[in-house]
Design brief:
- The complex is a heterodimer of chains A (493) and B (95).
- In chain A, β2 (75-79), α4 (106-113) and β3 (117-122) form a beta-alpha-beta unit.
- Chain A has helices spanning 9-17, 23-41, 49-64, 106-113, 161-168, 185-191, 225-235, 253-256, 279-294, 310-325, 343-354, 357-370, 376-398, 419-423, 425-429, 436-440, 470-484; strands spanning 44-47, 75-79, 117-122, 174-179, 194-197, 217-222, 265-269, 298-302, 403-407, 445-452, 458-465.
- Helices cover 39% and strands 13% of the residues of chain A.
- In chain A, α5 (161-168) runs parallel beside α6 (185-191), α10 packs across α12 (357-370) and α10 crosses α13 (376-398).
- In chain A, 63% of the residues are buried.
- Chain B has 95 residues and is mainly alpha-helical.
- Chain B has a domain at 5-40.
- Chain B contains three helices and two strands; from the N terminus they run αααββ.
- A two-stranded antiparallel ribbon of chain B has the order 1-2.
- In chain B, a hairpin with a 2-residue loop joins β1 (83-84) and β2.
- The chains are: A alpha/beta (493), B mainly alpha (95).
- At the A-B interface, α10, α11, α12, α13 and α15 of A face α1 and α2 of B.
- Chain A: Belongs to the amidase family. GatA subfamily.
- Chain A: It is an enzyme of class 6 (ligase).
- Chain A: GO terms for molecular function: ATP binding; glutaminyl-tRNA synthase (glutamine-hydrolyzing) activity; transferase activity.
């Protein structure tokens, strides 16, 4: 029999239904895999085997009674940003030490109601601020992928680095993640997995620690396009507890997987051909274009003239919103407290000790751009640029384009403690150059593996869709996946 | 626009983050690198452009102003670093 952890969600669902596998067996297989691998990969910051076993037992009982939910018995990993009742929820920050919420996020509630099993909480960049998972208080995650013939550790991307690494290394069947500037799509691209950031408003943000509220969206990271569609179907909902949650029925995303792309118009935005883009990224993009042509799609060159301003505008909007959202971490109601001479001194000492370097940097940038005299020059200007970025997309969609195809990242995974990245924060920020436009415009974006680099590392393509048209992304994504194949790392851990 | 050491100290104060004197020069350099990067927005003509207030066109949802939850004092103080009788404890604020 195939190793249970090698099954995709769709395959595990079939095996559970056919009763050739029990939820208990599947969960045990993942718990053993995590025990054996987590010391090397550091993908999980908290493992909840007792909870997982209890949930799997309940799943087996429901399966026996014929009451199985859509994700019955499927073991999942949860990014540490999601509130999970009574379980480690710290956004991988020191400032939330020992925080165990008394409530459950809407997205995870949806998953448990559908019968999914929680394996534990996944590592991430602190408060989702980072592109390498190196800002986590719990240390970096190692990418399960290494260059051919090399034993150098690489980053899995970020901020959902633990989610991507756990999915790639088969330490969970699928994972939740969040994306504010590329935090689902960039790690998916770095690990040969599939990740989708849905349209803003599709998944409830309730119970997810806020980073930049006008940009944050939850989504899944999965092994293939079909699994991503299955997970998103359950994660998405209309939620009265999030006023930006959209009043629209959740479509059957799985039905869109494998649907013909014949006649679809796929736009190729010329502005994504950036200076000094590695040749293999350009070649990958070209391959993607050929695959979609072969599948019957029409390729159209388009222009999104404000693309280059998305990243600078993002580095005003996101830190500004973060500086406001993170004001709540003051050592009074939860988490770390460092005593001080008076209350202000306590706040300052707590925040100095509790936040990591990158988080402090962003809070200070945000505080500065919102401070008296600078608001118009920075924040207001950035929000105007954001309107122009969104208008660019609206124009190409009005011209009949169904989706856009771009590379997901400007490079393959880089090394842990890369000197270039460490010396200049802006270098790290450039990782999100292709993904951040999508958040600024609130659109859905899917990262799907397109092939391997010359060094044997996964490279991803990105599909950008119309608002709430995730279905087209799943059908076009599955066409790319069919042509490119799937990629699994060689086990070294 | 760029920040100097005095601005770094002022921003740190506003953000309620203690910064040691030794750290000021490094923070100054980093903040200026980021501000230098966002400077390119100056090239964009935004005359007559409305600032974005909602990324998805939708009417703001409204709810009834009613009590829907409560009696959770234990839950609310459960994670507090210091609490007594359902109050959060902080250093003396008023003399």
């Amino acid at each position: 029999m195939t190793e249970p952890t090698a099954l995709t969600i769709a395959e595990a669902r079939d095996a559970l239904k056919a009763k050739t596998l029990s939820a208990g067996e599947l969960t045990e297989a993942y718990i053993s895999a995590i025990e054996a691998a987590n010391g090397a990969l550091n993908a999980y910051v908290a493992v909840t085997p007792d909870k997982a076993r209890a949930m799997a037992k309940a799943s087996d009982e429901r399966i026996a009674k014929g009451e199985a939910g859509a994700l019955e018995g499927i073991p999942l990993g949860i990014k540490d940003l999601f509130a999970t009742e009574g379980v480690h929820t710290q956004a991988c920050s020191h400032i939330l030490d020992k925080f165990e919420p008394r409530y459950e996020s809407t997205v995870t509630s949806n998953l448990w109601s559908a019968g999914a099993v929680m394996l534990g909480k996944l590592n991430m960049d602190e408060f989702a601020m980072g592109s390498s998972n190196e800002t986590s208080y719990y240390g970096p995650v190692k990418n399960p992928w290494r260059k051919t013939g090399s034993n150098v550790d690489l980053v899995p991307g970020g901020s959902s680095g633990g989610s991507a690494a756990a999915v790639a290394a088969h330490l969970c069947a699928g994972a939740t993640a969040t994306d504010t500037g590329g935090s689902i799509r960039q790690p998916a691209a770095f690990t040969g997995t599939v990740g989708i950031k849905p349209t803003y408003g599709r998944c409830s943000r309730w119970g997810i620690a806020a980073f930049a509220s006008s940009l944050d969206q939850a989504g899944p990271i999965a092994r293939d396009v079909k699994d991503a569609a299955i997970l998103l179907k359950t994660m998405a909902s209309t939620d009265a507890k999030d006023t930006t949650s959209v009043d629209r029925d959740v479509p059957d995303y799985e039905a869109a997987v494998g649907r013909s792309v014949k006649g679809l118009k796929i736009g190729i935005p010329k502005e994504y051909r950036v200076e000094r883009m590695p040749e293999e990224i350009e070649a990958l993009w070209q391959k993607g274009i050929e695959w979609l042509k072969d599948a019957g799609a029409e390729i159209v060159d388009v222009s999104l003239p404000h693309t280059k301003y998305a990243l600078p505008a993002y580095y005003i909007v996101a830190p500004a919103e973060a500086s406001s959202n993170l004001a709540r971490y003051d050592g009074v109601r939860y988490g770390l407290r460092v005593p001080g001479e008076n209350i202000a001194d306590m706040y300052e000492k707590t925040r100095a000790a509790g936040f990591g370097r990158e988080v402090k940097r962003r809070i200070m940038i945000g505080t500065y751009v919102l401070s008296a005299g600078y608001y118009d020059a920075y924040y207001l200007k950035a929000q105007k640029v954001r309107t122009l970025i969104k208008r660019d997309f609206e124009t190409v969609y009005a011209d009949g384009i169904d989706a856009l195809l771009t590379p997901a990242t400007p490079s393959a995974a880089f090394g842990i403690a890369d000197q270039d990245m460490a010396s200049d924060p802006v270098k790290m920020y450039l990782n999100d150059i292709f993904t951040v436009t999508v958040n600024m415009a609130g659109l859905p974006g899917l990262a799907v593996p397109g092939g391997l680099s010359q060094d044997g590392l996964p490279l991803g393509l990105q599909l950008i869709g119309r608002p709430f048209d995730e279905e087209t992304l799943f059908s076009v994504g599955s066409a790319i996946e069919k042509a490119a194949g799937r990629f699994t790392p060689k086990k070294w851990w | 626009m760029s920040v100097d050491a005095a601005t770094v100290r002022r921003v740190a104060k506003l953000a309620r983050i203690a910064v040691s004197e030794d750290d000021v020069p490094a923070i100054e350099t980093e903040l200026n690198a980021i501000l230098g990067f966002v400077e390119q927005l100056g090239e964009v003509d935004v005359a007559d452009v409305e600032p974005m207030t909602s990324v998805t066109p939708m009417a703001m949802k409204k709810r009834k102003d009613g009590v829907t939850d409560g009696d959770k004092a234990d839950d609310i103080v459960a994670n507090a670093p210091a609490s007594e009788d359902h109050f959060f404890m902080v250093p003396k604020v008023v003399e």
